[in-house]
Structure formats: structure tokens, C-alpha cells
Amino acid sequence: MIYLLWNCQGLGSDLTVRALRGLIHKHRPPVVFLMETKMLSKRIDGVRRRMGFYNGFNVDPVGVAGGLSLWWDNSVEIEVLLSTPNLIDSTIKILESGMVIRGSWVYGTPYREHKVEFWCWMEASFSPTDIPWLCGGDLNEFLWSLEKRGGSEVTPSRPRYMYNFMLKIGLLDLGFNGPTFTWRGRTRTGNLVQERINRCLANTAWQVTWPNTRVLHETVLGSDHCPMVLVSKPSGNKHIKLFKFEAHWIKEDESYQIVNMCWQSQVGGSWIKRWHKKN
What we know:
Strand content: 25-35%
CATH superfamily: Endonuclease/exonuclease/phosphatase
Number of strands: 15
Strand order of the largest sheet: 3-4-2-1-15-14
Structural class: alpha+beta
Helix content: 10-25%
Order of helices and strands: EHEHEEEEEHEEHEEEEHEEHH
CATH topology: Deoxyribonuclease I, Chain A
Shape: globular
Radius of gyration: 19 Å
Number of helices: 7
Distance between the termini: 26 Å
């Protein structure tokens, strides 16, 4: 299965629509999640059908801000469980295999004054599950200080909203291939700021089912966010990558937290299997 997730920052631009068409043609994703569509359902449904998707669910923008849209083809059946301006929560049935998974498609609030309320609501609304679970989108939060470059300094005392959510709900970052930063912008003084605020999270059941999952950060075009393409393949023989340790990692204050978070994750199986998956 292939999933495309993109904060397109408005589908009213010809360049953005062409970029989206190119991504769909290149990757052929059965599921597409768009954030900040800034477009009402009637118009976005027309774009969706022109892209070859005849199934969809929209959350209209509030004024000229926001807007979510989830598209899928006939290889899957999607049931929307809950929707808000910041979330579409769903179950996905993969028709070829009959497997049912959970997909939570998130656009985290970008407003600092709303972050406490939003992340507290997220923690209260979700709980760990035994079925494969993908939670992804533009979360508008970076996890570690090295995921931000430019702008104001990252302080050790900053709130760790997403980290706490992941720890409580049992989700881990699926990593990525491609550029480190998924968003770029400029401060009021014109200085460049880059952050990794778009990501895909998954639970243990997802990683056991699809251990070969890859997340690709695509080229930025038509938006200041890069699209994410998630590819999940059935488990089987895979190329073993050599682990390379960079000495400078131990100088990062958050190295301990990263290791600790991995070791606290719940993994089933024998002790040797658990040890292998946490390393």
C-alpha cells in the first residue's frame, strides 16, 4: 500500500494542482490525505474526481484557513469514525487481504495558544490498539532540537506535546528518506527557518505487520511543505542495512531520551526478538 500525505497550502493554485497530479501519477497511491486545502467541499470534489479518485471525505476550512480532504480508490474501504478541523480518524479495510487498519490523519494546530488544549484532547481521545495504526500528517511539532534550524533558540524546558502523546499512546516515528526538514519559512526579519513538523507515526502492530515500511520526503513544489509518501510492503526477506554510529550523537542532550523512548515501546515475541526490534 502507498499513502500520500501533503500540506498543500491551498488547492487554488495551478502549480499546486499540477504538483499533486504529478505525485499521484508517479506513486499511484490508493489513499491521499491533504491538509490546508483552503477549499470548500464542492470545489475540492471536482479536483478529486479529475485526479481519478471517486471516494472522498472533506472537512471544510474555517474561513480561509485549514481544510482537510481524504481520498481513496476502490482497492480499499474507508469508514470515517471522527472528524474535526484538525483530524480525520478512520478505519481502512484493504480489500485484497481483508485486513482492517486504523488511519488517523492529523493537522496539528499551528497556534501556540491552542497547543495545550489540542494535545490534551489528542491524549484523551486515543488509546493503544492491537490493530495496525498509522497516525500521520502535519503535526506542527518537531520532536528533537536537531529537527529545527534557524529562528528562535530551542530551549530544554520547551513543552514536549508530541513526545508525551507518543509515549502515552504507544506510537513510534517511522523515520524518513530524503531531506531532513519538511517545512521552511521565514521570520519577520527575513531569516530562514526549517523544521521537520510533518511525520508518520505507527504502533507496534503496524511495524510487525509491515517492517519494511518506508517514508519518503518528496520534492517541495507548490507548497512550503514537502509531500510525504509512505510505502508499506508485506514482510519478507529484506536487505539488511549496516548500522553506523556517529560519534557526535552522544553530544546531543536528547540522545538519552531517544534511546529510552525506543526501549519503553511495547514489542511482543521472545526476548531475543524484542531486543532485536529495539536496537
